[in-house]
Amino acid sequence: LSMAKQMSSDKKDPLLSRDILMRASSESACFVLTRYPYLSAILLMIITGEQSKTTDLNERKYYIYVHVGLYFVSATLMAYNLFGLKKLFALVNVFHTIIVTCLEYEPSRHGEHIAIRLLIRNFGIIGCYLMVAGGLGETNEKLLPNKNLMSFGIRIIGAFSILSAVLIWNSKEELQIYLQALPTGTLLVYAIIFPLVICGVCIYSGYHVVLTCKVLTLLLLIITLIDFAHISSNFKQSISWVSIYVTCRHIPIMGALLLVNKSY
Q1: Interacting residues of 244 by C-beta distance below 8 A, sequence separation 6+
Q2: pLDDT tens digits for 54-64?
Q3: What is the C-alpha to C-alpha distance for residues 219 and 213, in angstroms, rounded to an integer?
Q4: Domain limits of the chain?
Q5: What are the phi and psi torsion angles at 190 (to 5°)?
Q6: How far from chain centre, in Å, is Cα 220?
Q7: How far apart are CA 160 and CA 220, in angstroms?
Q8: Over the stretch 27-86, which tens digit does the pLDDT of each residue have?
Q9: Of 61, 164, 171, 237, whose CB is crowded by the most CB atoms within 10 A?
């Protein structure tokens, strides 16, 4: 009997460890996703401080204060679900990101490459916060998810994955970043581009969404590490802070992808 009990406990232990790991990853992803606007606000203030050393920002300072304030309010209400406004302010964050994207898309200021990078990654952020507004990461089982928002958000993330692959394929600056970071040259670059396209198509079409989201999370983690390696080797004050700001846009998208398994 004692041997049978020990064998049964040995069988349960891997399942228990897996449940603990899944719960920890879900809670971490939810933490990152709801509090990411804090990081956006901090980076925006750092970039503004760096730019103010060389540029007169009198005309822009008021709109910067408004954006920072919106980031802090959205993050606080989403993180703690104050007054039950988490979903509403996730939707507010979607519209805020759209406005920020329109205002920040200035190729003349930071270069066309960074502007397009920011545009594509903001597109992915819009998708992930649409999913939060639809009920992604919701702990209250009595509240039914909004399937329309969830479906629309996940399809945007699928399109974001395809656009990320297109950027690497078509942009010389983007391709050069990967060629510098990856030892075998173009072979490993293709090993990133083609899975991005496949993941995007699968997510957009709804084919094996949970598994594909896990693969896309891993790909985005690799891309983010490559970006940070490039930034650390080419640190040039304010322009690098802008690059950090753009690179960090992958963080909430990865958080949303990790939470997909609880909703599909």
Answers
A1: 43, 228, 231
A2: 777 676 777 88
A3: 10
A4: 21-137+144-262
A5: -65, -30
A6: 9
A7: 11
A8: 899 999 999 999 999 999 988 888 777 777 676 777 888 999 999 999 999 998 888 889
A9: 164
